[in-house]
Amino acid sequence: MPQGQPSAVPDDGLTTRQRRNRPLTIVHTGIGKGKSTAAFGLALRAWNQGWPVGVFQFVKSAKWKVGEERALRVLGASGEGGTVAWHKMGEGWSWVQRDLESSEEAAREGWEQVKRDLAAETYRLYVLDEFAYPMHWGWVDTAEVVGVLRDRPGTQHVVITGRNAPPALVDAADLVTDMSKVKHPMDVGQKGQRGIEW
User: Fold this and answer.
1) pTM for the whole structure
2) What is the structure's pLDDT at 62?
3) 134 and 58 Cβ atoms separated by less than 8 Å
4) Biggest distance spanned by C-alpha atoms of the chain
5) Which of 45, 157, 166, 191 has its CA 20 to 30 A from that of 77?
């Protein structure tokens, strides 16, 4: 694998190895498809490295069975890579919010669990799927999230997905990808399909 050369090396007193192994905060945002898909790709890489992975789904319905969940659960139980834990926040909620009060409470409870797991260093990779929404909607305080992630112990990586990632989160993140849409089959009336959207 070719070795990338940084364009500038910061004067931060860290060795190359220390800098290379810093825990990352990663944000996948934007209106295009692929934010969660990319995050689950990272989860596969983490599993392959033997890292414990924690997935926290904040928006998708708890009743919705996504392909990534089944695949990662099977891999996590295989004993060949890292373990995988999958958490769905409350009953889940989607683009059409039916009960905003209970959805807001579920999001807050989910964030409290993430904070406990970060403090305990439970996982090496956290996938906070659709977590940008609770911050965007004001259900979870962005400044608190930024502070907790900045001060987390150990070498825990965190990837957050969702549209409208708050600017303070984007500023604090180490890696940010904005997924833009050029074309999508739904633009011409085609519904989501098995194997592509789920």
Assistant:
1) 0.88
2) 59
3) yes
4) 55
5) 157
Place of tokens 């659709």: 130
> Would you state the structure tokens that stand for residue 131, as one six-digit string?
């977590």
Residue ranges of the chain with pLDDT lower than 50? 1, 91-97
What is the C-alpha separation between 94 and 62, in angstroms, rounded?
Answer: 10
The neighbouring-strand residues paired with 84 are 53
Task: Give the amino acid at 80.
Answer: E
Q: How far are the Cα atoms of 6, 68, 117, 176 from residue 148, in angstroms, in the given order?
A: 28, 27, 11, 18
Sign for the pseudo-dihedral over CA of 179, 52, 153, 60: positive
Q: So what's the pLDDT on residue 36?
A: 93
Which one-letter amino acid corresponds to residue 12?
A: D
DSSP label at 57?
A: E
C-alpha distance from residue 104 to each of 116, 128, 140, 198 (Å): 19, 16, 8, 25
The string of DSSP codes covering 69-134 is HHHHHHHHHSSSS--EEEEE-TT---SS-S-HHHHHHHHHHHHHHHHHHHHHT--SEEEEETTHHH
The 10 Å Cβ neighbour count of residue 92 is: 17
Q: Which two tokens stand for residue 152?
A: 């987390």
Q: Report the distance separating Cα 118 and Cα 9, nearest Å.
A: 29
DSSP string, 153-184: -TT-EEEEE-SS--HHHHHH-SEEEE---S--
